[in-house]
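Sequence in, structure out. Go.
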Amino acid sequence: MKPSRTQLLLLIACLLLLAVPVLAQTSATPAEAEVGGKLDTPLPDAPNPNPEPRRAPPSAVRPMPGGTQVPMDKEFLMATGILFGSSIANVELTHRCLENDACTLVPRALVRRRALYGVGLPADAGVTVLGYFLKRSGRRWWFVPAAIVTAGNTIYGIHAAQHMR
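Output:
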């Protein structure tokens, strides 16, 4: 069974949506980047010769209850959704391939759908937690683990779709 056109379009859409977090990190438009910013903005005031003494932030004085929280933004939710979506598509395509006796290289322990989900979804949860901690620590590449697993799921899903009868 060959993959349907909808399944292939879904896999291609997952790959294209992986680029969204990378594109969202660019801030300046090309016209502003060439000129160095807007030209009609006023100049800043001169610095104060007697600056006020700086106080320590409240978190340095006493610990904040509950730790630091990172808000769930669109990019994080989109990367996580694509990660879990590609994992589910991979499991379903692999299971159909196994039902047709076309995929023979899948280990015997993973021939049931329950076993495939039992391995895939906890792994996706771990990758999501890793991405959250990377994002919370301020890393710009927080989405890379999710992108790698999504790419692997997509590659294996396409492979399973091609080997169905």
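Check: The helical segments are 5-17, 20-24, 30-35, 58-61, 74-99, 113-136, 144-162. The CA atoms of residues 56 and 160 lie 57 Å apart.
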